[in-house]
Amino acid sequence: MILGNKTLDSQISASTLSEAQGTKHSIIIEKTFQNNTNSDYTEKLRDLGNEFNYASNSNYYWSPPELSLLYGTPLYDAISPSQKLALNHLYWVGNYNHTAVSEATTSIYNMVTSGVFRAFGGYETLCNELDFETDQESYHIRTFQKIGYKTKMAIVGKTILGNSLYGKSDKESNSWLRPLIPHPVREFFTSSGHGDSTFSEYRDNALNAIAKTMLSDKKQYYSKYLQELEQRGEPIPAPADGLGGRIAPRHWLRFFTVHWGMSPFMACQYYSLRYTANAILKNQEYPYVRYFRELEQKGEYIPTPTAVSYYHLLDEAFHTTISQTIAKDMYKDFPKPTAYEKFVSGLAIYMAQRNLLSGLSGVLPGRCVYDDPMLMVFYYKLLKSPLFGMETKEALDWMEKCFCQEHEGYHVGLKYHQSLLELMQRLFSRLDYQWKINREMGIMAAGGSISKALQKNTKTFKEFSQSVIEQES
């Protein structure tokens, strides 16, 4: 084990270690590690991904119909049975593409935080579990990608594989204000196209310095993973996509990462965020598990993606247990958080609520955020793809009905929102160091409103449709 360099730090670590051994949470971690390493779900997932053939699975629902793109919308009621099947399959693809990106992020943060726990000492079983989880995630990701790619190619080809609808907008370049800004000032704030702007580099360096200064008494625990990145001249990791990419802007994520990779308490606090990802996945994945069991009980054919969802949840159950245990109990092993650590941990969860959990979707069940322009781009491409073959006006007319009018899809979305809210409140209500609005999940709770979603989506769609018409006129 690696302990702190200072005598006082060594004494604190040794004292904490003796208190941590034999605790309820240390026993849970030990048992979870044993059960996880003894299971064979990861191997099943690998084999299912390698053997997947879309034609053999194309005539079956992969989940209950409500887990389909556009479910409950006026368009869904008007389309053919084969198109409904395709939307059911594409929902699975989109959900697990998002999950794959999020699990790649999880792998990075497993390494960031395990570096802190190893430096503190006494948590080798936990670190071994995190290392094992990272290996599992690599198999999960490859399976999701294989099934997703084959399915997208079979249904829509390459039509909607990209995210952008158009090239970079020239709106900014035509701004009346631009000529009034001195060229050196514009250069300072604008990226050259080969990397970050001078301003963003200064900002990131300043935030990094603040974090390290405020946590200077914990520098002996600085994650080896982050140290090695710095030695190679590589930036602090900050995801741009997946759930991690939605939590906060990348400069804030780098700022939080330094804290999660230096302070033992903050490393534990990260797992409350990881639990958020676990809970979102469980909320959307458990219906697949119920569907798997229903098909199995009836002796009916089980589509490969349904089986993947089933075995993935079994694997992820171990990961969820670890997230809960660290976030809810293990943080108490360490000295109480400072006022500064409480502030940063509160800010991270507040941003996650605001950016990831603050709304409701009527076209993507389980999405607890308002429908943004990027999602509208996706649906616009989908409606113009070979699956629907719509012209621009027809596509926009249908999108307006789906995004801006109340329908069953919003009520299905609200059901998943309430289920996730309960999971979140169950954990965060126990975190005594968190802000009241975070313990109660106040922002998320306020976002569970169909009327608010319609109001927000109507405004967003109006701007989106206008941009489409301008670009295509």
TrEMBL record:
<protein>
    <submittedName>
        <fullName>Uncharacterized protein</fullName>
    </submittedName>
</protein>
<dbReference type="InterPro" id="IPR049717">
    <property type="entry name" value="CylC-like"/>
</dbReference>
